């Protein structure tokens, strides 16, 4: 028992665990003072344990966990809290609601410490089955906290909406507040244009309820918005005030979030070098999250910019223990990868840039936001453009950086837009196509004007970020025309003739080279992917043999070039069926004419000849790529169906939509498109039947109802809304997509 807790309560209160728990609940749920609540709950647990009050022990053990996960820091303190919760769980009935809540808390803490979420989702399912609304609300909030990675957006949204509905059942203001907070966080993480609207609504509610911990998180988001606006002086004052509020309520993240705010301010001011000693010291702080590598990324970025390349390379090597693919998904994942790209650009590190590009590519449209909306470094497109610059791919760099400027303007992130313009000038100058010089001059003039208005220093960019090894010469004009195909069995075509690749590992080597899109990939990384954690001692020699065999299949040695530290595929722009598919899908999802969209998307879909990378299993990296590309196919098929609906081809769209629904029985967007197609074919009953089947599947498998847009679509089908007819295509098909 902490002496401070004993001194803070009268003797009569110390002897009454029920009174201590009520006081702790008021401090936690109503006032939001985490420190005061912890003191009450710790004392309540010891008193209840002394009295043999098992339910009191459980209530106190739950309370001491607090509002967030990993709310208290330090190995000894965390171990003590876990010990309380496990003792309490062992003391209460296994089927009691207190046991359900304790299992959810323990599962969430365990998942959070390793960047996973399977255990807490199992506990959430148990809470739903038990039926206690408070247990469900608590489990939903804990599960949400474990799902802050960029790939979790859809699931986070579903949890948040369920929490807001469950809050109505519990009647507890804290549940409503947490639902509103998570919805606001979700929208900032997703780059939703309505995020600030959610923040205003949350702030209005806090003016009535004044919960200190939620208020601290809300204020941190307001600091982030001030940085986006380029109001650095005001943001710095707000950040200090926010830190004081966090410290006052006992939030362990207060100093960490303050340093994050300060780093973002100095980064955009061009003064981040001032923070290197602080970042070096804080990178090893026990107060950081258990899987947070962002401080190492920050150290690498600053050190590289300051010319300390040894320190920068050492910090980069700490990320994922030298393998970026091993960094667990979390709220700091995007900003960590962003830092890795910036450091790699300064160091000319092609391998890091290439790996970061592949990892970030699926999240191109997201903002680089860390924590619960604490800091934002602009669009992921900027990092993709910079990585492409480092790899010498000027065309790709220009495309990404143009998108970065647009995305940052849409975010209202003026400093990030300014930095993206400067990098775009670099990319255009490097590319040197007709018109690039004029565009670069215009972008530079705009960027310099914005920089002066915002008080930003001129960005220090390396004059030659290009890695020579990553830009091999193109094949001679008389070389055979070749393409690697991975959207099905791995093979290649030469002058239109298919050439089979024998041997599973040889296929894997070719697939790895193809999926790196012409970028250099290190020998060690190829071996890790193809042979796994325990490669034979002959792996390097065997790899060389496989490369020689593949060159013979291509009919030219220059198809695969040896470039330190490994190899690069050296073919034309459409060197792989993946490149062609991605280009066609981009065209098919951005064209204004539905006929043009359908033509491009149909051509893309036809490129798949079966399961991606068919026959290659046992490699986590390849399996991840296969899953990504198969999801790209689903996206293309869905977009094709919507284009056909826009053309009035309802019957033609039905076949693929029905197949998609069978393959993905829980996918709401596909069901919505199917409902619309059935309705337009005059099959209103079948359209409503499709909705009911989805509703039953969601209830049985996830315990949730269909989303509001889909419920609105069902209502429109029931009343035969005129907007569902072909003349209402845009409003009907886009509203829920």
UniProtKB/TrEMBL annotation:
**Record flagged with keyword Transcription regulation:** yes
Q: Per the database record, which ranges form the OmpR/PhoB-type domain?
A: 474-571
Q: Which residues bind DNA?
A: 474-571
Q: Which SMART domains match?
A: BTAD (SM01043), Trans_reg_C (SM00862)
Q: Which terms under GO biological process does the entry name?
A: phosphorelay signal transduction system; regulation of DNA-templated transcription
User: What Pfam families does its record include?
Assistant: BTAD (PF03704), Trans_reg_C (PF00486)
Q: Which UniProt keywords apply?
A: DNA-binding, Transcription, Transcription regulation
MF terms from GO for this chain are: DNA binding
**InterPro entries recorded for this chain?**
AfsR-DnrI-RedD_regulator, BTAD, OmpR/PhoB-type_DNA-bd, Sig_transdc_resp-reg_C-effctor, TPR-like_helical_dom_sf, WH-like_DNA-bd_sf
Q: Which CDD domains match?
A: BTAD
Q: Family membership, please give it.
A: Belongs to the AfsR/DnrI/RedD regulatory family.
Name the PANTHER family for this protein: TRANSCRIPTIONAL REGULATOR REDD, TRANSCRIPTIONAL REGULATOR REDD-RELATED
| Protein known as | DNA-binding transcriptional activator of the SARP family
